[in-house]
Amino acid sequence: MERYKTLEIVQQTPNSPVFHLYLNRPLLRNALSRDFFAEFPKALSSLDQNPNVRVIILCGRGDHFCSGIDLKTLNSITSDVLSNDLGRTGDRLRREIKGMQAAITALELCRKPVIARIHGACIGGGIDIVTACDIRCCTQDALFSVKEVDLAITADLGTLQRLPSIVGYGNAIELALTARRFSGSEAKALGLVSAVFSSKDAMDEGVRAIAEAGIAAKSPLAVTGTKAVLLQARDLTVEQGLDYVATWNSATLLSDDLKEAISAQTQKRKPIFAKL
Fold this sequence. Notes:
Elements: E1 7-10, E2 18-23, H1 34-49, E3 55-60, H2 71-81, H3 86-109, E4 114-118, E5 121-123, H4 125-131, E6 135-139, E7 143-145, H5 159-167, H6 169-178, E8 182-183, H7 184-190, E9 195-197, H8 200-216, H9 220-233, H10 238-252, H11 256-267
Helix pairs in contact: 1-3, 4-5, 5-6, 9-10
């Protein structure tokens, strides 16, 4: 399995279809570096193309999930794009931002479901990451903040685009304008996370159960199709969304997975689905 500077891929249980993708800079609270933005889409693509992977759990090594962008990286980007020509400076900076945006959007482009397992701090760029995940869970003592305004930055990696559809526009703008901290319990009340656990160990077990029994045991065609259709429906009218899923199912519905699911229901046994 490929090695990365800022990430680690782990299959914790042999033959398990659930793989863990760790943010792996624990001494720096998993702050996001330039290496991260280069490696993250590659790691996700690797997991997406691996037929043994059905669910990805995204988590952080150490005491925190992610403390946001590394300030050294921010300074480095600023220095690298500077030029005597303001137009060219702006063009270079835009390309840098678009590249970092693409790294986060890779979570949505990955066909396999991604579950964010959040503990400790989830700040700034950490919010960008988790809002692009499919399911989010956290510990009771997790700490969140849409931090960018405190750094004189308009958040530009996805939070302002994704958070309103998750927690509602009113909640999103209040969190983004104030940059205030909020707890795991409040994150659950807002709808940012699906479940809150009393401890990291409890979350590890709970998320593993969601991933293995709740998702990985189901038809991979149905799971990847459900993710794709839901993401597409976000930007469509109901009528357009219905047309999209009709087209999708016309290509994938008549599968061996459907036959196996019906057979298993009839025989009162667990279905066994082929790898994708």
